[in-house]
Structure formats: structure tokens, C-alpha cells
Specification:
This protein has 704 residues and is an alpha+beta fold. It folds into 5 domains: 249 residues, P-loop containing nucleotide triphosphate hydrolases (Rossmann fold), CATH 3.40.50; 96 residues, Elongation Factor Tu (Ef-tu), domain 3; 74 residues, Alpha-Beta Plaits; 115 residues, Ribosomal Protein S5, domain 2, CATH 3.30.230.10; 91 residues, Alpha-Beta Plaits (2-Layer Sandwich). α4 links the parallel β4 and β5. α3 packs parallel to α4 and α13 crosses α14. The longest helix has 19 residues. GO terms for molecular function: GTP binding; GTPase activity.
Amino acid sequence: MHSIADSVRSSLLFFMFTVIDDVKSLRAVVNPDISKIRNIGIMAHIDAGKTTTTERMLYYSGYTRALGDVDDGDTVTDFMAQERERGITIQSAAVTFDWKSHRINLIDTPGHVDFTLEVERALRVLDGAVAVFDASAGVEAQTLTVWRQAEKHHVPCVLTQHFSIESIRQKLKANPVLLQIPLGSGKNFTGVVDLLTNQKLTWQQRSMGDDGRVFESKPLDQSDDPELLQEVSEARAALIEQLQEAVRRVTLARKGVPVLCGSSLRNKGVQPLLDAIVAYLPAPSERRWYKDDLCALAFKVLHDKQRGPLVFLRIYSGTLKPQTAVHNINRNNTERMSRLLVPFADQHVEIPSMTAGNIALTVGLKQTVTGDTIVSSKASAAAAARRAQDDSGMGKKRGEHAAVVLSGVEVPDPVFFCTIEPPTMAKQADLENALNCLQREDPSLKVRVDPDSGQTVLCGMGELHIEIIHDRIRREYGIETHLGPLQVAYRETILHEASATDTLDRTIGERRHIVTVELSVRPVDISSTTDSCKSAFTEEDGEQLSQEIKDAVENGVQSSYLQGPLLGYPLQGVSTLIQSVNTEPGTSPAMVSACVSRCMLKALRLAGGQVLEPVMSLEVTVEEEHLSSVLGDLAQRRGTVRDIQSRHDNKVLLATVPLAEMMGYSTILRTLTSGNATFSLELDTYEAMNPQDQNTLLKRMAGL
């Protein structure tokens, strides 16, 4: 098996392909039936070729006049200043174009782990994805992450074959369906053989400026290289065994993954990739409960200085029109959408309407945030709820306010934080406005105020994430802020089971509030990287308490989970059992919450505290001559080596290492290897900190 380059799919019909010189207008994008719409994403590890592939798609479909280059900083989808300077994708960008009577709504996603939320929220609204693999690296750490995200959202995929079929099987646990084999490899890669049609597709690069518009398609014949003919024969036989007629069906069911070959960088194989997208990836499916009424999900927000918030919506049913009022189920409010746009990176075109299955950009929705469900009215939401209840066979209980809300986007917890200060107090209000806007754009960015110092604290997904936020505040909002030292977002858990009882008796005005709470806490599994704190009532108490009191109790418990008893870090791995709640008539829910919080603090202190630190999966690709230096440095960082693999002429080091030891690692690694190494980090788990390190941390936090 050859190793190749960077794109996907095979076509049933091929011909000499040329593109007219005129650039198409977005206003001319085909608006077909929903069956001919494809909502897809491009996903992969950083630097695997996602943006380059997107750039070729836009060029060959006729929507750009020239081929952009990531290194030159002139691609369509990487339009942020930080993206063009660094040569990486930071935020997902949407583009719309047509290909052979199909409308393609494409989202180019980041590959860096700090911006994994951008991939998550894109996959939440997409129907299919193209996974791009680097020819020299194969399945890398972030490839596994985005693959798991696609699996979680049940998104069918098409793969580019940049490594080996066996690598895909073993690391992704996928069933690759090979549709093409390459002609040559590396610099000698000239094209592919389509195993379905037995056609040989070749791109003859006649000059360095050859843009790959023209390729030749002709049948294989006996005059071709005997080794190639044998390889094609064997590969075709294997393909036929994998249900030749059912490639699309197994793709949609995620039982198989079409694998193709290409090199976007060398302008080869992108047109067959586009054919694969329309042939094998799914059309949008409508949400049945809203029938012909509008139902859409907000999955991204951008701020425009002139137009205000721009909200990206995926339309699941109905039609979206400007100058109409829409109802936000999550916020329980109604807003007027003033304008409707077709997204094309940072250049958008206004349109009069958008139908189900599409991705739209709206102006005027000032309260809507990521994850909100947008419908035409409260009445349509109520009607959809009734249909859903009828379908499930559950009648509506008296006083129950049901609504059919689309599942939102899971936002990962931050792992780093630091203080941020304006240059003068006169700029504090401007900084708060900037942070509010950035938080709305990026839900993985959290901002809080330290209750002791009063300082503003930024919480983010990594060093690069916080660095980019800092730079955006300077460039986009004109504020020169100062960042404090970067700190790790630790968590806490408890060591033992403990019980506590507390009574609150308080008179406010003429009203007396009396509540007594009894509860217990116990430790549970902490291996998950997500919050694993739970609470429950005893069966007897759960039946006797009103919903209002239950909600108040839950609020008290959840607020206690936000600050552990040791250092005030969020709790993880704690289960709470509410054994009894007794209130006198007239006691307010707020007092119930306050009593529960106080009782929780007692129990947590009795249970003993343990600091948990985030531990990362580290993958370093390095030349063998520098391996010992990298290993020595890793040992000083409390790292544990899991494996050392060979990849071509390099070594791949797989290890786990505490996040606290990885600050500034990119600079150190560059020095150790003379710049000839790459690495990736991904949150693996939270582990109990050893007693010595925990004592050191406690003393440092106490200022000793």
C-alpha cells in the first residue's frame, strides 16, 4: 500500500474537468431540494491540510479566482489576523458553494486541542464530515479526539488516505472501505485509480503553477504497469466483498468509512472528493415534531462592529425570513431578526429566505447564544411538545410546561486561568464589554471575579487559547491589558463518607424562616474528565417535598460543588444524598438553599479533602538523535512514558504528564530539538496529587 497526501472519494463518472474563468456569485448558489443539500465539516489534526482542502474545493467549484495558501496567509476561511500570522485555524468558518447541482454548506474546523469546542459545535449541526490525514503522520492525537466527537454526534465520515488502512482500523476502530489507490507516492504521486469504475485519473503537472483544474480519466488497460494492475485487481476484489452497491448505505450507518487518496497541496484529487461528498454523505433530515414550522439551533455567535451579534443557525424545519419575530425557547423571549445572510467566511451575502437543511447567518438576535433553540412562536413550540408527548405515549401532567428543545453543545471545563487587568480603571467598563462579547462568541472562555481580591479572572482551554483572547482584546477592542501568571485549574474531591445536620432559623422583617437539613456525602469515581458530582433524595423525602423545595435544595448542593473545602476549586467525584429536609410554613426557597450549602460545607470538611490535578496525554514526534534529550526533560516533568513508536525516520513518544509541568513546553522542546519536533496535548484524566506536591500547593496558595 502506498502512502499518500490529502483529500477524499471516488466518482462514478469522470471526464476532462475545466472551470470557467468567471468567479461565481454567492447569489447564484443553487437552492435545491433538501435531498441535494450537504452540510459537512473538514476535520483533522493540526496542519493536516484541512484549510488547504477547503481552499481547493472553493476554487474548483468556481467561487474563488485564485488558490489561497496557508503559508501566504491568503486563504478564504482563515481570515482572522491571528490565523494568518500563525498559519493555523483558530475558529471554525462556514462557506457555501455548489457542486454538480448540489448545495454544499462546509465548515472548516480547527485542529488545535485548545479550540476543540469549535469542532464540537460544528459537528453538532453537521450531517457528514471529511477527515483529513497527514501523509507522514497518519492517525494523530487530535485526529482521535475529533473522530470521537464525530462518533458522539453520529456523523458519517469520508476519509482521506494519508497513511495506511491498518492505521485507520487499529487507531480509529473504523472499517475503511478503500475506493481509490494512489499512482505513485510523495513527489511522484500523479493521481489515483478509481476502484469502482476501474478508471485511472491523472493530474499531469506541467509547471509549478499548474492549478490542477484539468485531469485525465481513462480506463486501465493491459499496457499499464503489471504491479499496478495486480494491486488494483486485489483491491477491487476486496471492495466488492465490502458491498460495492452499498457504499453509501454503510457510510450513513457508520458501519464503513470510504477512503480516498489525493494531495490538496499539489492540487490533485479534490474534484473526486467533492463527488464523494455528494454521493456518500447524507442529506439533512428534518425534525418531525415541528413539521413545517421553523425549528433551528444556534451553534455559533460572532460580533460585528457595524451589525452587532451575528448568529449562525442550522435550520431543521420550516423557513427563515428576515424582518420576522422568532421565539427563543431557552431564553423564553421573542426577538426580531432583521437580516438573513449566506455565510462565506467573513464575506456574507444577504438573501430573502432560507429553507430547512441549510446553515444561515442572522442579524438582530441580541439575546441568543450557542445552544439555543429558535422557533417561529410559543404556539408552535407548544404544538411540537404535544406531538412529542403523543408520540411517546405520555400524557401531559397538570402544570407541566413541556417544550421540544434541541440538544445543545457540551462545553468542556477550562484547564488554565489567569488574572486580567485593564491599563487604567477608566478602561474597566470597556474590558468588561469586550469579555462579555468574547464569552458569547466562545463558550469555552469563562470569566469570573475573585471574591477575595476583586480581580477579573480568565479561564481557558490552554496557553494558546488565553494568548489568542489576550491578543484579540488588544486588536479588536483597542485595550492593552495585563495578564497575571498562568495557573492550572485544579479540582478537589473527598476521601471518606461523612454526614452532617444543620438548622437555619432566621427572622427577616415579620417573617420567620426555619429549615433543618440532614445529608451525607461520599466519594465516587474520579476517572472522568467531566463533572461527576451527583445528588439524590431518599425515596420518602423525594415524594413529600414540593418541586419548589426540591429545586432550592438542588441549588444549594450545586453551589457547594463549585468550591471545595481545601482551596476552593470545583469538586469532582462527590455523591450527595439528601436524607431529610424539614421546613416551617413560610420559609423561603432561598433560605432552604442557604441551609443546604452550609450543611454541605460541614459534611465536605468532615469527609477530608484531596486535590486533583489534570493529567495530559502527550504525543511528541522527534528525530531519533534528539529522543534521549526529550525523554530526560520529560522525566523532570513527572511524566510517564507509555510507548515509543517508529514513524518513518522519526520516533513518536507517547506519555502522560501533569498539565502543571507543561507550561512553556513548546519553547523548551524547540530548544532541545533545534526546532525538529512537534507535539500535541489532550486532557486525559484528573488524578489525585501526591501528598508532597499537595502540601507544596497548599503552602503556596496560603502565601507561606
